[in-house]
Amino acid sequence: MTRARGAGRTRTGGGLRARIAAVVILVVLAAVAGLGVAVHLLVLREQVDTARRAAADRMAAALDVRAATGLLSFDAREDDPAVPAELRDAVRGDGARATLVTGGSVRTVWAAGRSGDVVLSTRTRLVPGEGTLAQVDRALLLAGVVVVLLAGLVGWVTAGRLARRLRRAAETARTVASGGDPASLRRVVGDRRDEVGALAEAVDAMAGRLAERVRAEQRFTADVAHDLRTPVTGLLTAAELLEPSRAAELVRDRARALAALVEELLEVARLDGGDEQALVEQVDLGEVVRRVVRRGVASGELPAEAVTVSSDGPALVATDARRVDRVVSNLVRNALRHGAAPVEVAQRGSVVEVRDHGPGFDEPLLRDGPQRLRHDRADAGGHGLGLVIAAGQAGVLGARLELDNAPGGGARARLLLPATPPGAADVPPDAVPHDEVTDGSRARERTGRRP
Amino acid sequence: MNDPSARDAGRRVLLVEDDAVIGEATAAHLARDGFEVAWHTDGLEAWDAWRAADPPFDLVVSDVVLPGLDGASLTRRIRETDAVPVVLVSARTDSLDVVGGLEAGADDYVTKPFDVQVLRARLRNALRRAGDRGPAGGVVPAGEASPTDGTETFGDLVLDRRAVQLRRGEEVLALTPTEMRLFLELAEEPGRVLSRRALLERVWGYGDAEDEDHLVTVHVQRLRAKVGAEHVETVRGFGYRLLR
């Protein structure tokens, strides 16, 4: 079909999926970290408390031993100058036993008690990073890593499923928008009752209503054209009866213009109907193109010096000559009407290019493709159905019609005929019957025959 | 032969058209060209007029959609007894109408809205084909060396160019002038493929500007039905050829 637009389609990447997975990982990471720290602190405190209790017990025992025997036991020292003043004061003050923990990563657990005038004290080294706490930390870290990875994976998969449904929906919507098969988004996203499903249903409903409106407009166009046909034929036939005069000439001219417009509308309606079929024959594309121009010049419609035709030699192409004729003649007429001479028609292989030297196609046309009856051009001398018909006929031919502006200025339309036209796939390879029609070497290449 | 209106003078045309303006204006054009025109707005009336006509009409121009009897049915009834040229005027875009008319035996058709010049050219071509058929105006194609007795054989078919007759054994096949012309063009050089385009030009006299989808296809079908499908071969994508 027609693609007036250049390349550069926006694609949906994996943005949504990556974002959702990242959020899941971050949240789980924060939770695991918080939990880990809390557990670490609890275990640490428990460890310190245990150490204190043990030290206090030992001190009690050491005091008992000293009181009974006067001996020092349980690594207790008398009046150790290293005992923190705080502890010593506390013990001397109220005569009780006390414990104190000092230090950071390596801690010292002090226990002290008074026996007469003597302060007994013990000190125990405590490294929290060793033993149980270290094991707990390792376990926490391992579990944390596993949980984060698992959560990330689950997030990635779930988000992927969501993103895939949305992406499929977007792709389907884009296909429908560009005139492809009318498909249901609901079917594409599955029948889960969630937000994506609701969105799909809403878009389906919108597309359905728009399609219905377009169909109604097409029907209306077709009906109007049909109804105009008989009175316009009457007008045309009657106008031809007028005696020769300037007035008769004007009436005839306008009646013909009206008849031509009705015919164009009918052609558009037929193309809209979608059951047009190409009648494929082997034709010399160069000759088809030359005939368009020759005929236009002969009928006075095309100024002889305004249109040039070039060809790179005979090219046998399997296509529908009548439809190619319609495309090329509409392109040439459009070029003369909206562009400027000279109009160059060039046939290269199975490609026909029509280029003029006017202001070129305007932006909306390049963006949206040919639209029916546009009147937004300042120089619009006629009804803008020519390009619509050209695009429609190109579609029936299975060809592409590319519209752009030539590097040196001027509008350029290229008709690219397919190697295999629609419905011609079953042409037998030995269908080359006669010298006259097989003269072009391309035919032999195409059919795989040796010369 | 050079002045068409002189040649057409006195020829009788049956015009069937239910639209008052088109009917009146077309009748006026035909009258101007020297035809003697009988215009009817109803298919059945036209059929009655056809049967009552004496001398018979030389040409039938009929709309397709008509009250009473549609153009295709009218053509079919006429074809049961007569090979008179029939040109249909179709107001419908859907080609089923047209194909139906051609299958019923119409020689050609024009589509509304038509240009009077086009209608005139089509009628003239149809009359020319019919005229070619008469023994007096029999065609012996130039440059074609006929066998001494003036006949050629294509399998079980015998073509007598002088009498413009195609026979199978003793039976003379009832071809319309257009079908005969189509056979003659294919018989020019048996085995050679003629494209749709070439046949449109040679049989129907269509110019560069004019093209048409169904005319050739349907006429070839009709010809096949009469002469036997094995004689006319379709060469897909290229055209048709006559087999000996």
From TrEMBL, chain A:
One of its GO terms (molecular function) is kinase activity. InterPro entries: 2C_sensor_his_kinase, HAMP_dom, HATPase_C_sf, HATPase_dom, His_kinase_dom, HisK_dim/P_dom, HisK_dim/P_sf, Sig_transdc_His_kin-like_C. It is an enzyme of class 2 (transferase). It is found in: Cell membrane. The keyword Transmembrane applies. The chain crosses the membrane at residues 20-43, 139-159. Its EC number is 2.7.13.3. Residues 160-215 form the HAMP domain. It catalyses: ATP + protein L-histidine = ADP + protein N-phospho-L-histidine. Residues 223-421 form the Histidine kinase domain. PANTHER family: SENSOR PROTEIN CREC. This is Signal transduction histidine-protein kinase/phosphatase MprB. It comes from Phycicoccus sonneratiae.
From TrEMBL, chain B:
InterPro entries: CheY-like_superfamily (IPR011006), OmpR/PhoB-type_DNA-bd (IPR001867), Sig_transdc_resp-reg_C-effctor (IPR016032), Sig_transdc_resp-reg_receiver (IPR001789), WalR-like (IPR039420), WH-like_DNA-bd_sf (IPR036388). Residues 149-244 form the OmpR/PhoB-type domain. Residues 133-152 are annotated as: Disordered. The modification 4-aspartylphosphate is found at D63. Keywords: DNA-binding, Phosphoprotein, Transcription, Transcription regulation, Two-component regulatory system. SMART domains: REC, Trans_reg_C. The keyword Phosphoprotein applies. Residues 12-127 form the Response regulatory domain. PROSITE patterns: OMPR_PHOB, RESPONSE_REGULATORY. This is Response regulator transcription factor.
